[in-house]
Amino acid sequence: MGENKAMDFFTQQEKARKKTGLLVFFFVTAVLLIITALYAAIAAILLANKPSANPFQPELLAGVIGITLAIVAAGSIFKMQQLKKGGCAVAEMLCARPVASDTKDFKEKQLLNVVEEMSIASGTVMPSVYILEEQGINAFAAGWKTSDAAVCVTRGCLEFLSRDELQGVIAHEFSHIFNGDMRLNIRLMGFIFGILFIGQIGYWVLRGTGRSRGVRVHSNKGKGGGAGAIVLIALAFFVIGYIGVFFGNLIKAAVSRSREFLADASAVQFTRNPPGIAGALKKIGGLAGGSRIIHHNASQASHLFFANGLAGFWSSVFATHPPLDKRIKAIDPAFNGEFPVVKNAVPDDKRHCAPAASPAPAPKPAVRIESALLLASVGAPTQEHVAYSSRLMASIPNQLRLGVLDRIGAQAAIAALLLSREVSVRALQIACLELADARLAPRVTVIEPLVLGLDRSLYATVCSLAINSLRSMEQKDYQGFSAVLKTLVEADRKIDLFEYMLMRMVKRYIEPRFSKSARPGASIRSIEPVAAEISMLMSVLSWESADSPVQAENAFKAGAAVLGGSALKLLSCERCSLGSLDQSLEKLDRLVPMAKRQVLNASVAVASIDGLININEAEYLRTIADALDCPIPPVIVS
Amino acid sequence: MEELSSTENKISFSRQAYNDSVMQYNTARETFPGNIFAGSFNFGPATLWEITEAKEREAVKVQF
Known about the structure:
heterodimer; A: mainly alpha; B: mainly alpha; 3 helices
């Protein structure tokens, strides 16, 4: 995983925390504004009745402040008293049903298991678990402390989501428990209710006076002015109260919205499985009812949910959650905006399948790869990458796949990949093999025909399979094997890209087990001291992606523009060798993560000078990125 | 099957939670202001929980 990703996560956590403080401040401001508005309204009414009065009356102001705060406090305390029991109270307010720990229902048992797993992952105690009988996909966590928290999911969650996706949703809810959001949320519920209470009192008074006036309208002419003032003041309470609620809802939405990204990020931290939560969000987008909650109390708890629980005219302003596609993009940068279609009735055997991946694009002669997408996928393999890898796996013949499971077979497979197509070179290589290890040569001859039938794009997959089984190798075996590799690679007196990649992979994944010296830390802070190395890297790429010196010059300039350094200079074609590239990469690996990102950005700019990245350039980029410890998942070729 | 995968998840999540805490602790120990006091109050570095022996890493065979 790239260090820069981890850094982004922690800075985001910090940012969200600060933002919440700011929004609480806004909330207090809203209450102050309500007081001012009420005072202005009452003063205006009094002035209208008695034009000679002084517009500023400290007693009146004090009275308004006292009454408003008292009403807000009374409303809030009433609501909070109601919610004192914690998460269970909120769940029961929405008529949710607790899940028994000895439930016989498979889906409910799975839910309990997933909740328990997530409580372990986040280091909090197990909350009570509720189910809401609604068809939308949604969930919430509520409570004051971790000990009285409750997690509640809808029936739709259990019906439509796979286990991994359910885990993502639950992890998201745990983030709300863990980061103290639910405490803030349940307080917000109280505050909002307090403001709502002002409007409510205005409404009661209006109704009360309306009714009483209806009875006594004829006998009460003398006091008409006073009653009129009361009606007007009640009306002011009503209107201002509801305007307060309007802004309260806006604030509630904003507080909640800013926390959702954090919760999504934490969900990834807890599960280490971005496709899970991304898949759940995609399914909400694809399901006809989405995340709707129908219960009439849902509006009070709207900011507690996993995704928007309400729908309606104002839903975009009052949305308590960021738009789905933004949330998905934050987790899965390769998301193309298309939601999978989720059918309302999911057959049992399909339940554990991954969500339908977007339809594969039609085969194209040249591989078009968006350079931005390529860079975004660094250290972040998506569901599609996983699906693609398993497709790649499936297209490797069984015999070969089983053949590389033992160490000799794995070595033989790597050797077979390195065998030259030229007869004379091949004969030399075979002779070297027989000399080096008597057991190896016969296996190579068995495996070679299998390897020859493979598509070029599968070579890397076979290598990684083989390297996997070589990880448990003894040190002296490894030394022998790497000597063999070296002779095989150098048999034709030149090193091509694939050979270089293979050597690097072997070195990188097996060697660290034996060398006790730690990898040199990230000690180079800026790109200036390594300008020569970067020039080498970008020159290799420039010559690779260009057909003429002019094009190479242009490509190099595009990369240099990204870095903005003047010390960068295009090296001549002859000076660019894989050997010197290797040395440059070793040095560049010691850059700090942000500088690495810049270097990768520049490399992508160089490779994509003609608007697309071909498969050769993509392999170069992958090799470079891998050497810099920022792995790019396989480039998807349909 | 569900019970098996859940148990496996619980084990790996426990390890993950432990290792996350170790990482957080070590980071706090080595960054300002913790780095000034950590040494003098004997807060040594914590070690991650890792399986070192190759044999223990092998997948378990399950038969019903």
